[in-house]
Structures are given as C-alpha cells and as structure tokens.
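Working notes for the structural subgroup meeting. M.R. asked for a predicted model of this chain before we commit to crystallization trials. I am recording the input and output together here so anyone reviewing the notebook later can reproduce the run.

Input as submitted:
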Amino acid sequence: MRLSRYFLPVLKENPSEAQIVSHRYMLRAGMIKQSAAGIYSWLPLGFKVLKKIETIVHEEQMRAGHIPMLMPTLQSADLWKESGRYDDYGQEMLRISDRHGRDMLYGPTNEELITDIFRSHVGSYKDLPLTLYHIQWKFRDEIRPRFGVMRGREFYMKDGYNFDLTKEDALHAYNRHLVSYLRSYERMGLQAIPMRADGGPIGGDYTHEFLVLADTGESEVFYDSAVTDLTFGDRAIDYDSVEQCQGVLEEFTSKYARTDETHDEALFNEVPEERRRVARGIEVGQIFYFGTKYSEALGANVQGPDGKQSPVHMGSHGIGVSRLLGAIIEASHDDKGIIWPEGVTPFHCGIVNLKQGDGEADAACESLYEALTAAGLEPLYDDRKERAGGKFATMDLIGLPWRITVGPRGLKNGVVELTSRRSGESEELSPEAAVQKIVEIYANHQTGRGF
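Returned structure, recorded in token form:
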C-alpha cells in the first residue's frame, strides 16, 4: 500500500479524552473514531489489525477441532426468560422491542442461543463431542465506558461452546481450549497468564481468566513470578490426547496466579517471598465449565449408550478480539508510539523515501515495494512529499516492526537502512539483502494478509 493513497488520519496531539496509552495511540494513529460512548468505528489501520487477530483466533480454534459458525447480534428474549437469566443479567443487557412489541435484546453472550441450536438438531451421544464457536459483535451497556476498546460497550468477541456427554469429556474440552488460547496469545506476541477466576453471571465450577500484565489493567493480580518463565513455543499437541492437554493445563496453572476476586492470602504466602508479585492485569479471555446448568434449563438432552436421556455437559470459552488490540498496545509501546509484534502488524514493513522525486530513490523504493509484495508480504510505502522527520514520526507512531529507509546518499554506496522498531537498531544492507532478511523474519511467523 502506498501511503499517499491510504486513509490514515493521524493526529499530532494527544486527545484529551484518552486516559490510557492504548486509547491515546489508537486515536492518534487513526485506527478508531468514537461514534458514541464506548462505540467506535474501526478505520482501515485498526480494521487490519482486528482482522489479523481474528485470523489467528480462527486458525487456532480450527486446529483444536472446533467448528466456526455465526449467530446474530439480536436475540429473542424468550430464550433468556426460559433459562431464567433475562431478569438476572442486570442493566448491562440492552433490552429492546421490535415493531410487533416482541421483547428482544442485543446479545451480551450466546449460551441460550447456542443451546437452542443444539437441542433442535442433536439428540444422540453419537454426535458428541461437539464444539461450536463464532466471532461476533457483542453489546454490554457499561455504566462508565472508558479506556477506548479496553472497556467499550460494543466489542468483537470469539465465544465458543462445547457439548459433551460426561463431565470428564467436558473437562477435556476445557483443557483443549486452554491449550489453544495459549498458542493464540503467543502468536500475537503476548504472554497471557491463566488465573483462577470467578464465574460471574455466566456461572461455572471451573473457570480461568487469561490476563496480560499491564499497569493500566482493571484487575489486581497476585502471582508467582515463575509463571512468567513459561512459554508454549512450537510444541506439537495432539488435541485428542487427554493426557497432553491435561499436562499443559497443569504446567501453566500449577504456580500461584489469581485475580483479586479469588485471591487466597494463605496460599500466596506459601510462594517463596522473592517470587511473590502483585500487579495489574488486563483480561483478554476466559474459559468456563458449567456442567448442565443451561442444558437442564433449556432441555438440551441426548440419548446415551444405555438408551436413557440425559442433559449434556457444557462449557463456554471467550476471547476479546477487539480488546486484544488495546492489550497488545499496553504491553508493547514506547513514548514514540505502538510497537506491533510481527504476528499482528497491519503492514509487515515500512518503506521511507527520504527524497521523493529523486529518480534513483524513487526507483529503488518501487523495486523494494515490488520485491516485498512478490514475496507475499504487505509493505507500506511512504511516498508522500513530506519532510523526513514527519515520515519517521508517522512510522514510529503506527508501530510497524521494520522500516527500510532509502536515500540518495546510501544508494551511492549501494545500501539502504533496515531498522527494528523494537530495538531501534539499524544496519546498512543492499536492497536485495534487506528484502531477504524481512522475508526470513516473517517466515517464522504465521501471518495472514488480512483485509
């Protein structure tokens, strides 16, 4: 993409309404624009990152054997009345009526709707296990929406639901989700720590939240610093293996890590003092096992191998796709702007022409642009007739991991400058070598081209 043809309405000044880093940089980098309190339009740059994150979530869910679908944003209130949650959910639920006076709601979650789909089409244990998921917009009417996409009223979320014959099968689904989430977050450049949590209005006897450590986190967290040494890496996992999935869960949850809601001071004090940490965390996902709570309420039964009818065991599993943008920025930025991890960057590399209009510089930039594109990458070429300082400031603000700088002086020596946004280190390479290095870097990352 050529920047002269792209829609990137960057701001030079910090918006007064932005209280935290991610909100400030998303507004300044032209990623979002507020439409109403807690509701945003996603501008092209923000939309590209959103789709990159969504692609990773889809890939890892399907790798784990989960089946994508799509449910509507608006739901009939009848199902929620049937489950008993319509009145219990509280004022966060946006309740509306259609033109015929029927009670409707803008879905904050989908347990009732997915259970109704299941009970309408599945009646035998032979169709189990089954996990369905979708990525869809949700709405929760926060009393004080703030912090941009971190606590908005409208948000983009992956929610999945497993249906199993027994508790043991459902707990395997729980463990399978934990593994797939750990892999997803690492691909996004995040370390998300699974922490014992409270079930809240969804309910459930087993639940873990995934939190990213950040000073602006809404939750106080208590943890053993040993958990931050754990990485999922590129290990191969057989998602059908109960033992392997259980082993990963035990590895990542055996150290103390809890939110303030479930914190146990006595257990925390058993952690060696030098490893005890108290910090803030941003929730980016949560998994639940809630047994037969919804299947009993909504009559989601299957015939077992003994011929008897029994309610299925269920769980739900969510990832805040839009919230993740804010979390990544909170975890990866400096005083100049965003620093995107390679797995989610909107463009793989920036090209800065120091002297637009110079024949040799223009030709070199065009050649780099074509070579990177031919290699399957998306460069962003700043071909504007702007001063060099302004071009560098824009690149730093939007946070592309790598930048190739092209100028007449370097070209006389046959080199361009390749700069790492994260480290700030630069090296002079031939244009061909710079392209090859960028290609090799991204060969180690699974990245989709997005939109």
